[in-house]
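> example.struct
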């Protein structure tokens, strides 16, 4: 790859460059993401437009269109691609979409300020235009820009608020990838420097990087256990999967909540857990705040399960950017796989303390290595050969909690003041599923921290499990008050 010349985006060129995506992107092919922020004040649309114009001038990939390989018609697991204009845009070509609206309803109809510990998420309609695409297929068929911005304005007496949103197909970006786009825009708004990803080549950087590791891949012992954290799903499993989530919503009343845990409560949880660790465990492996939160959430939501041999699983994505000598540091597309956590039974979880569970989670996270990434790569290839769909979750266990820790991306307390806003009050995300309008359940996102240290959680659980989690948070908050 070092001898290959990067693609030139010089003025005067009127052709398109086709850039391939990978099977890691295919894992998220049916999902569209709507991400947004509620901020004080009214942001100026023109400032966002000018800032994003400067971003795409330095990062032309963002002006492309999402497409699929022609062979996809013959093989449904073939990866997708981007078609990126070289130089000047064709007539009528829009590099992105930026729209705005004024809400006919007051913000108080949606959320009470200041926000309580548990609130309903703001609807996705406040962060996206009615005409914005909602499925991967819609982006492809209508040949729409991969980034769609939207701002909704509110006025409440003397106060004003803005909902800043962007929509994108998950098949193009993962969490850290879209975070790099957001941080680039904010840097331009604040007149700060930022690093644009390297120039594109005709081959996908992730594919090239993995190809370099082929010798290691061949050396992996094929008799090792299957990488169960990635699922291979046939048509019948997909039908079952959708029906199960429908059942959770209709019968078990699964619902979404934005949960806020004060910094003092987070500190107490972390401190108490570390004190409970045996000295040998505490010293041998660094147990992070994220490990402790993951263990506490996992144990809490299953706390009322009858102890049995029922298998349960914690699925959590990890980025491959840490590997391969940093070659993927600025790679914006999907390059995540679920960590190879062990399976538990409800009986095992019931007798395992949060401290010991955090230690187990930390052990897997700290030992996660390139070999795991290559084992996952083999699982992807084998799934494709079987002509099955790739799912970024375990398809063996009866019940799985899907956890995402996005605090590393720092996308909660985004500074939109360069666009004229005041304080950022909250961050929201909606997942639009092409398979079904039903929201996937057993979802937990450790979103990150607001400017006062408050931890923001974005969850979707059956009502019974949500009650357990909210109750545990209230008890933790009360304990802090009692001790102070």
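> example.seq
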């Amino acid at each position: 790859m070092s001898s290959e010349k990067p693609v030139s985006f010089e003025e005067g060129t009127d052709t398109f460059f086709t850039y391939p995506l990978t099977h890691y992107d295919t894992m998220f092919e049916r999902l569209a993401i709507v991400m947004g922020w509620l901020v004080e004040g009214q942001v100026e649309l023109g400032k966002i437009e000018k800032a994003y114009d400067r971003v795409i001038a330095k990062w032309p990939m963002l002006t492309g269109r999402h497409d699929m390989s022609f062979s996809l018609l013959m093989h449904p697991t073939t990866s997708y691609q981007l078609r990126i204009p070289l130089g000047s845009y064709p007539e009528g070509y829009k590099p992105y979409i930026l729209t705005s609206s004024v809400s006919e309803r007051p913000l108080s109809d949606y959320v009470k300020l200041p926000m309580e510990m548990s609130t309903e998420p703001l609807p996705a309609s406040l962060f996206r235009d009615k005409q914005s695409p909602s499925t991967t297929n819609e982006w492809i068929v209508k040949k729409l820009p991969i980034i769609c911005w939207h701002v909704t304005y509110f006025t409440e007496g003397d106060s004003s608020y803005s909902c800043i949103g962007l929509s994108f197909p998950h098949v193009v970006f993962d969490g850290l990838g879209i975070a790099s786009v957001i941080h680039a825009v904010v840097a331009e708004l604040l007149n700060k420097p930022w690093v644009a990803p390297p120039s594109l080549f005709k081959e996908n950087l992730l594919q090239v990087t993995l190809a370099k590791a082929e010798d290691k891949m061949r050396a992996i012992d094929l008799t090792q256990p299957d990488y169960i954290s990635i699922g291979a799903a046939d048509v019948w499993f997909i039908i079952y999967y959708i029906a199960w989530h429908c059942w959770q919503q209709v019968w078990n009343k699964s619902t979404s909540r934005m949960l806020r845990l004060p910094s003092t409560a987070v500190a107490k949880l972390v401190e108490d857990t570390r004190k409970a660790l045996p000295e040998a465990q505490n010293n041998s492996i660094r147990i992070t705040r994220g490990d402790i939160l993951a263990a506490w959430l996992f144990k809490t939501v299953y706390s009322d399960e009858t102890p049995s041999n029922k298998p349960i699983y914690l699925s959590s994505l990890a980025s491959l950017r840490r590997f391969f000598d940093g070659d993927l540091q600025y790679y914006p597309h999907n390059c995540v796989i679920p960590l190879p956590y062990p399976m538990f039974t409800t009986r095992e979880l019931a007798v395992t303390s949060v401290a010991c569970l955090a230690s187990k989670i930390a052990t897997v996270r700290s030992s996660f290595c390139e070999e795991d990434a290559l084992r996952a790569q083999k699982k992807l290839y084998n799934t494709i050969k079987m002509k099955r769909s790739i799912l970024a979750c375990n398809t063996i266990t009866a019940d799985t909690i899907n956890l995402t820790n996005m605090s590393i991306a720092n996308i909660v307390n985004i500074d939109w003041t360069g666009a004229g806003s005041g304080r950022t009050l909250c961050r929201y995300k909606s997942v639009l599923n092409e398979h079904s309008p039903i929201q996937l359940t057993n979802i937990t996102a450790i979103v990150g921290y607001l400017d006062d240290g408050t931890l923001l959680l974005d969850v979707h659980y059956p009502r019974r499990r949500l009650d357990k989690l909210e109750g545990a948070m209230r008890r933790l908050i009360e304990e802090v008050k009692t001790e102070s």
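> remarks
Confidence is low (pLDDT under 50) at residues 70-77.
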